[in-house]
Input
Amino acid sequence: MAETLTLTYLNEDDKAYGLAGMAISLAALDAMDFVADISLDSDGPMVNFSQQYYNPASPAVSVKTNWNNLLHNFYITSAMVLSNVMARSIVRMHQPVPSELLDSIYAEITEEGKETCSLEEDEIENIYNRTSSYMRRIFNNPRVMPAIDEFARTISRRRTLSGNEILDELRMLQII
Output
Protein backbone atom coordinates (compact mmCIF):
# COMPACT_ATOMS: atom_id res chain seq x y z
CA MET A 1 0.00 0.00 0.00
CA ALA A 2 1.38 3.43 -0.94
CA GLU A 3 1.99 5.95 1.78
CA THR A 4 0.01 9.17 1.72
CA LEU A 5 1.64 12.27 3.08
CA THR A 6 -0.21 14.09 5.86
CA LEU A 7 0.71 16.71 8.42
CA THR A 8 1.26 13.95 10.98
CA TYR A 9 4.35 11.78 10.65
CA LEU A 10 3.91 8.32 9.18
CA ASN A 11 6.85 6.82 11.08
CA GLU A 12 10.25 7.74 12.50
CA ASP A 13 11.89 7.79 9.06
CA ASP A 14 9.26 10.28 7.87
CA LYS A 15 9.91 12.38 10.99
CA ALA A 16 13.68 12.38 10.33
CA TYR A 17 13.11 13.65 6.79
CA GLY A 18 10.79 16.36 8.07
CA LEU A 19 13.38 17.46 10.60
CA ALA A 20 16.10 17.36 7.93
CA GLY A 21 13.96 19.56 5.71
CA MET A 22 13.43 22.09 8.47
CA ALA A 23 17.14 22.21 9.31
CA ILE A 24 18.07 22.65 5.65
CA SER A 25 15.62 25.53 5.26
CA LEU A 26 17.10 27.22 8.33
CA ALA A 27 20.59 26.90 6.86
CA ALA A 28 19.41 28.10 3.43
CA LEU A 29 17.86 31.18 5.04
CA ASP A 30 21.02 31.84 7.06
CA ALA A 31 19.01 31.42 10.27
CA MET A 32 21.12 28.81 12.06
CA ASP A 33 22.14 31.42 14.66
CA PHE A 34 18.57 31.07 15.95
CA VAL A 35 18.84 27.29 16.48
CA ALA A 36 19.93 25.82 19.80
CA ASP A 37 19.39 22.22 18.64
CA ILE A 38 17.15 19.77 16.86
CA SER A 39 15.96 16.52 18.36
CA LEU A 40 14.19 13.57 16.82
CA ASP A 41 13.21 12.39 20.32
CA SER A 42 11.56 15.61 21.46
CA ASP A 43 8.04 15.36 22.85
CA GLY A 44 7.57 19.05 22.06
CA PRO A 45 8.98 21.04 19.18
CA MET A 46 11.76 19.20 17.35
CA VAL A 47 13.58 22.48 16.71
CA ASN A 48 14.65 24.38 19.80
CA PHE A 49 15.41 28.00 19.12
CA SER A 50 17.93 30.15 20.94
CA GLN A 51 16.80 33.14 22.95
CA GLN A 52 17.86 35.30 19.99
CA TYR A 53 14.84 33.97 18.05
CA TYR A 54 12.42 34.89 20.80
CA ASN A 55 13.02 38.60 20.68
CA PRO A 56 10.13 39.93 22.75
CA ALA A 57 8.85 43.38 22.01
CA SER A 58 11.02 45.79 23.91
CA PRO A 59 10.36 49.44 24.63
CA ALA A 60 14.04 50.08 23.95
CA VAL A 61 13.63 48.87 20.35
CA SER A 62 11.58 50.69 17.76
CA VAL A 63 8.17 49.41 16.76
CA LYS A 64 9.44 48.97 13.20
CA THR A 65 12.37 46.84 14.38
CA ASN A 66 10.07 44.66 16.48
CA TRP A 67 7.70 44.23 13.53
CA ASN A 68 10.59 43.36 11.20
CA ASN A 69 11.73 40.71 13.69
CA LEU A 70 8.21 39.23 13.76
CA LEU A 71 8.05 39.26 9.97
CA HIS A 72 11.47 37.60 9.69
CA ASN A 73 10.44 34.87 12.15
CA PHE A 74 7.18 34.38 10.23
CA TYR A 75 9.20 33.90 7.03
CA ILE A 76 11.48 31.39 8.77
CA THR A 77 8.64 29.34 10.25
CA SER A 78 6.76 29.37 6.93
CA ALA A 79 9.87 28.01 5.20
CA MET A 80 10.28 25.34 7.87
CA VAL A 81 6.73 24.06 7.44
CA LEU A 82 7.04 23.92 3.66
CA SER A 83 10.49 22.32 3.84
CA ASN A 84 9.24 19.69 6.24
CA VAL A 85 6.61 18.43 3.81
CA MET A 86 8.82 18.88 0.73
CA ALA A 87 11.64 16.79 2.18
CA ARG A 88 9.18 14.11 3.22
CA SER A 89 7.28 14.00 -0.05
CA ILE A 90 9.71 15.03 -2.81
CA VAL A 91 12.90 13.48 -1.41
CA ARG A 92 11.69 10.58 0.74
CA MET A 93 8.58 9.48 -1.19
CA HIS A 94 9.67 10.69 -4.67
CA GLN A 95 6.35 12.38 -5.34
CA PRO A 96 5.06 15.94 -5.42
CA VAL A 97 3.54 17.38 -2.27
CA PRO A 98 -0.23 16.77 -2.46
CA SER A 99 -2.04 19.97 -3.42
CA GLU A 100 -4.58 19.46 -0.61
CA LEU A 101 -1.74 19.47 1.89
CA LEU A 102 -0.25 22.64 0.39
CA ASP A 103 -3.70 24.26 0.51
CA SER A 104 -3.98 23.36 4.19
CA ILE A 105 -0.51 24.76 4.90
CA TYR A 106 -1.34 27.94 2.99
CA ALA A 107 -4.49 28.39 5.10
CA GLU A 108 -2.47 28.01 8.32
CA ILE A 109 0.25 30.37 7.10
CA THR A 110 -2.43 32.89 6.16
CA GLU A 111 -3.97 32.80 9.64
CA GLU A 112 -0.55 33.07 11.28
CA GLY A 113 0.47 35.97 9.05
CA LYS A 114 -2.71 37.86 9.87
CA GLU A 115 -2.52 37.20 13.62
CA THR A 116 1.21 37.57 14.19
CA CYS A 117 2.21 40.26 11.73
CA SER A 118 -1.11 41.87 10.75
CA LEU A 119 -0.34 41.09 7.13
CA GLU A 120 -2.81 41.48 4.30
CA GLU A 121 -3.73 38.54 2.08
CA ASP A 122 -1.56 39.70 -0.84
CA GLU A 123 1.47 40.14 1.45
CA ILE A 124 1.02 36.62 2.83
CA GLU A 125 0.58 35.20 -0.66
CA ASN A 126 3.80 36.90 -1.76
CA ILE A 127 5.75 35.44 1.19
CA TYR A 128 4.23 31.99 0.62
CA ASN A 129 5.00 32.00 -3.11
CA ARG A 130 8.56 33.25 -2.61
CA THR A 131 9.23 30.73 0.16
CA SER A 132 7.60 27.85 -1.69
CA SER A 133 9.55 28.59 -4.87
CA TYR A 134 12.89 28.78 -3.04
CA MET A 135 12.29 25.57 -1.09
CA ARG A 136 11.10 23.72 -4.22
CA ARG A 137 14.37 24.61 -5.97
CA ILE A 138 16.29 23.07 -3.07
CA PHE A 139 14.25 19.90 -2.61
CA ASN A 140 13.73 19.20 -6.34
CA ASN A 141 17.45 19.46 -7.08
CA PRO A 142 18.55 15.93 -8.07
CA ARG A 143 22.14 16.64 -7.00
CA VAL A 144 21.01 17.59 -3.49
CA MET A 145 18.55 14.72 -2.93
CA PRO A 146 21.18 12.07 -2.01
CA ALA A 147 22.71 14.48 0.52
CA ILE A 148 19.27 15.08 2.07
CA ASP A 149 18.81 11.30 2.32
CA GLU A 150 22.17 11.05 4.10
CA PHE A 151 21.36 13.95 6.43
CA ALA A 152 18.04 12.30 7.42
CA ARG A 153 19.96 9.08 8.20
CA THR A 154 22.43 11.11 10.28
CA ILE A 155 19.56 12.61 12.26
CA SER A 156 18.09 9.13 12.81
CA ARG A 157 21.43 7.84 14.04
CA ARG A 158 22.51 10.81 16.20
CA ARG A 159 19.00 11.80 17.42
CA THR A 160 20.01 15.32 18.58
CA LEU A 161 22.29 17.88 16.91
CA SER A 162 23.25 21.38 17.96
CA GLY A 163 23.06 24.26 15.50
CA ASN A 164 26.81 24.05 14.91
CA GLU A 165 26.66 20.28 14.40
CA ILE A 166 23.91 20.76 11.82
CA LEU A 167 26.07 23.23 9.91
CA ASP A 168 29.05 20.85 10.08
CA GLU A 169 26.96 17.97 8.71
CA LEU A 170 25.46 20.09 5.93
CA ARG A 171 28.92 21.34 4.94
CA MET A 172 30.30 17.79 4.81
CA LEU A 173 27.37 16.77 2.61
CA GLN A 174 27.93 19.90 0.50
CA ILE A 175 24.34 21.04 0.94
CA ILE A 176 25.45 24.49 2.04
Observations:
- The chain has a mean pLDDT of 92.
- The chain has one domain: 12-172.
